[in-house]
Structures are given as structure tokens and as C-alpha cells.
Amino acid sequence: MYALVTGASRGIGRAISLLLAQRGYDLLLVARSEDQLQALAQEIGQKHQRQARVLALDLAAPGAAEAVAAWTTQQTDQLAVLVNNAGYGLWGRFEQLNLAEQQNMLQLNMHLPVALTHALLPALHRAPKAYVLNVASTAAYQAVPSLSLYAASKAFC
Predict the structure, then answer these.
(1) Cα angle at 124 between 118 and 127, to 5 degrees?
(2) In what helix (H) or strand (E) does residue 145 lie, and over which residues does it extend?
(3) What is the Cα–Cα distance from 95 to 37, expressed in whole angstroms?
(4) 56-111 residue pLDDT tens
(5) What confidence score (pLDDT) does residue 147 get?
(6) Which of 20, 54, 111, 134 could form a cystine bridge with 157, CB 3.0-4.6 A?
(7) Which positions make up the signal peptide (predicted)?
(8) What 3-state class would DSSP assign to 3?
(9) CA 46, CA 84: separation in Å to the nearest integer?
(10) Of the candidates 134, 131, 100, which has an alpha carbon nearest to the alpha carbon of residue 114?
(11) Number of domains in the chain
(12) Where are the beta strands (DSSP E) in the chain?
């Protein structure tokens, strides 16, 4: 069985990828940083004897969800886990932050997980047991004055 992890190159996504490999899943790893993804794929192969394939892609770009879904279905017909982990936050006063950057963050934190989950649900339904994990943040549960849109986007998850 395969698990797809977005934002897999570092942090929580990297840790989740290693845990899934330890539990016997082959991995589909997606993030912007190809060199970090390749290093993780190699580590997964060496430590856990699991296969890991990588796709380096800016997940906030238009059409990213469709591209990931198409790549995923080309790689396997045994998808059992989707981890929507990719995301980031912008710190600062709303009116002082660049609007385009804020919209990019919202695209990645909210719209990508919705579109990707929708596109991959048919594949996940074919698995005997399938899981979707949407990674949020503790910022979702509190007012954070300098992280207002980030907190809102993580509450959305």
C-alpha cells in the first residue's frame, strides 16, 4: 500500500513519511525541494526497505492538485493514505503583508487539500482501509494577532 505525503521534505511531513515507511507503506513524496525529497527517499529505502518516489512541485501553483493526482494514479493503484501536510504561515500585520503572498498561502493551506482529497477519494475508496490526515496547527484554536490568516486557514482544516 502507498501513502502520499505533501510537504514531505522537512519538519512534520518528513517525520510522518518516516513513520509511515516504518509501518510498511511505500511513499509518494511531494514538496518543492527535490534534493531534500531525494535524500528522504534514499533514507526510507535504506532504513525501512520501502520504495519512495518523489515529485518536486510548487503545490500553490495553479493546477498543482490535478498534477499531483495524475502523478499519483500513474505511480500506483494502491493508495491508502493521503497526508495533506504542505503549508506555511506569514507573520505580520494583515495590511502590511503582500496580498498576493497571503492568497498564495491560503491556496496552499486550504484549497490544495480540498482539491487533492476530492481528486484522490476514488483511489482511496478502493483500499481496504484508507486514511486522510489533514495537518493543522495549534494556531487554529486561538487568536493570533500577527498570524490571523494563517490561523484561519489552519482552522479550516
Answers:
(1) 170
(2) none
(3) 35
(4) 999 999 999 999 999 999 999 999 999 999 999 999 999 999 999 999 999 999 99
(5) 86
(6) 134
(7) none
(8) strand
(9) 25
(10) 134
(11) 1
(12) 2-6, 26-31, 52-56, 79-84, 131-134
- In this prediction, residues 47-64 reach a mean pLDDT of 97
Rg (CA), the chain: 16
CATH (domain of 62): 3.40.50.720
- The Cα-based distances of 97 to 72, 80, 91, 144 in angstroms read 35, 38, 8, 15
End-to-end CA distance of the chain: 25
pLDDT over 90 at 139, yes or no: no
User: Does residue 80 sit in helix, strand or coil?
Assistant: strand
- Predicted TM-score (pTM) of the model is 0.94
**Cβ–Cβ under 8 Å, residues 82 and 120:** yes
Q: How far apart are CA 95 and CA 8, in angstroms?
A: 31
Q: Which residue is associated with the grid cell 515529485?
A: 55
Q: How far apart are CA 11 and CA 14, in angstroms?
A: 5
Q: Give Cα 124 to chain centroid, integer Å.
A: 16
Residue with the larger pLDDT of the pair 81 and 141: 81
**25 in Cβ contact with 17 (< 8 Å):** no
Closest CA to 57 of 123, 8, 14: 8
